[in-house]
Amino acid sequence: MKKLSMLILVLAFMLAGCNSETKTLKVFNWGVYMDASLIDEFEEEYNVRVVYDEFDSNESMYTKLMSGEKYDVIVPSDYMVQRLIEENLLQKLDKNVVSLENVLPNVLNQGFDPNNEYSAPYFWGNVGLIYDKTQVDAKDLEDGWNILLNEKYKGNIYFYDSERDAFLVALKALGYSANSKVDSQLNEAFDWLTQLNTTMEPIYVTDDVIDNMIAGNKAIAVVYSGDAAYILDENEDMGYFVPEEGTNLWVDNMVIPANAENPELANAWIAFMLSEDAQTRNTLEVGYSTVHKDVWEFMISDEGDYAGNDAYAVRVDYSKDEIFKYDEELKVKMSDLWLKIKAQ
Amino acid sequence: MKGYASLVKPYILWMSLFIVVPMLLIVLYAFTEHGNALMAFRFTLDNFMRFFDPVFIKVLFKSLEVAIITTVLCIIIGYPIAYIISNTSERTQTLLILLITLPMWINMLVRTYAWISILSDGGILNSIFEFFGLAPIKMMYTDFAVMLGMVYNFLPFMIISIYTVLAKLDRALIHASHDLGANPIQTFLRIVLPLSMPGVISGITLVFLPAVSTFVIPKFLGGGQYMLIGNLIENQFITVGEWNFGSAISLIMAVIIMGSMILTRKIDRDASDTASVEGGKLW
């Protein structure tokens, strides 16, 4: 009798073991890009374990992916989505699970994924200048991006350390397209950046720009709108400005790699992240602009949390604001030139 | 004895898996053309040719310069410290060496971040200056900050390796020197210094090698415009995705490091030869 009860007990444990065998979802997202409590909630709701890793650039994310690391959901920017699609590294979203009907039309059906077959927007924004209103003349802002060459602000500038953003600024300052592949235009942009580097003594930064501008360490900085929204919240001396010459409009998207081990869960995660609740909490936590129609309307309305925040309300329908296009040759050329500027 | 010999086998396997194979991969990448598909490689020397651009050569020289200055500063600061420690009582020695190694228990990244908050424009140091009515000094993103970070990070290696030799020094030699009428300076220059050279040499190796290839410290404390060879390699692998060019630079670096190691070894041998003539065998 004792043996039998033992056996039952063991069997019961084994069954329980089967039930509690939870699946794992591996998510790869930008650093500081989510309200972390959402992870616990998702784990509970779907009875899964979420492994959440972070990256600091599209390129380092791509490198890690190429080295054989498997993820179920990643969050690349527009041009990287295009590259991943071109290289057959993504699988289509399950539109029965992922609904894009509440997503802002401005960020849907863009060139990098025309029908959003592979990607669902996560955050969006642009690139602009954050400036100290107590130090910068409003008049100088009329120069647009060329304010960065104004010697009045020599030694008082943070510039974003990424070739794509560097060339965006230079190309736009010269009145060209941010996706220009024309050699003469790229050479002009190179000269523009060289001039910036030699005459203005800029400091090249990435995420450290946020703390530095909150502390008011320099007068002008090139920043992403989401970071700017956060800086504006923390330091009221700061203003955000997007030059009329145009800028880069970007969309970060959730996608599922072709070799994902749990595509079903990945779709569920994406749908979960697109919900009104998740979008609200993420945008409040991080400061980047939401892609959810209703949340967006509320946030920029007079009662909204980001009412009057110039950086949060991304400029839309402006023809000179462009989304980056991926081009391998252009990428190599730009990074070569950028390296030469920095090593001078 | 034969039984013990086989104990070395797992070690050899470990070594070849984690040291030899990655090295071979670097060599392979360095001599092949772009493309992530390993199977379709084509031999080329272009990656090396690309490096011989004045811009990159300048980066190389700057890295060597920074590493040499770091090493020299570490000797100048580290030697007296090691000397003083070795002359204290044994119990104090243990304590002081513990204090020297203590910061190394904390990750280098964290310690470098700490320096950012100390040196930044509104940071701890400048707040203190402000308190005393002094004008703030720009320290972050300057040569000074990078140098400070480097010396701070690598100094313990120098102190420890010099100290180890000094602590084992036969005191009888020093007493003998005094008995024979040498003053303290003569004793130091003719007995202690030559005998401690092996420690200095191994300290140089331990400081120079990591200093010449570091990329975290210049990146954090010097800003993105502070381009050293380590940053160049990191940039090629992580941002540009040009593994082949990155490997070629790494290989060039490896050759330079190998060369400097052979050189220090030779100096080391010469030094210990003279030391053994002058003061008897050290070990």
Structure description:
Chain A has 344 residues and is of the alpha/beta class. Chain A is 41% helix and 17% strand. Chain A is built from twelve helices and ten strands. Chain A has helices spanning 2-20, 37-46, 58-66, 78-86, 163-173, 183-200, 208-214, 225-234, 263-274, 276-286, 293-300, 328-343; strands at residues 23-30, 48-55, 73-74, 90-91, 119-132, 157-160, 203-205, 220-224, 238-241, 249-257. In chain A, strands 4, 5, 6, 7, 8, 9 and 10 form a seven-stranded mixed β-sheet that branches. Chain A has a three-stranded parallel β-sheet with strand order 2-1-3. Chain B has a single domain (53-281), classed as MetI-like fold, CATH 1.10.3720. Chain B is 77% helix and 0% strand. Chain B has helices at residues 2-5, 9-30, 46-51, 54-86, 90-101, 108-119, 124-131, 143-168, 171-179, 184-213, 216-222, 229-240, 243-279. Chain B starts with a helix and ends with a helix. The A-B interface holds A 57, 59-60, 62-63, 66, 161-163, 197, 202-206, 208, 212, 215-217, 331-332, 335, 339-340, 342-344 and B 36, 55-56, 58-59, 116, 120-122, 141, 223-225, 227, 232, 235, 237-242.
Q: What tags apply to this protein structure?
A:
heterodimer; A: alpha/beta; D-Maltodextrin-Binding Protein, domain 2; 2 domains; seven-stranded mixed beta sheet; three-stranded parallel beta sheet; globular; B: 283 residues; mainly alpha; MetI-like fold; 13 helices; 0% strand; disordered C terminus
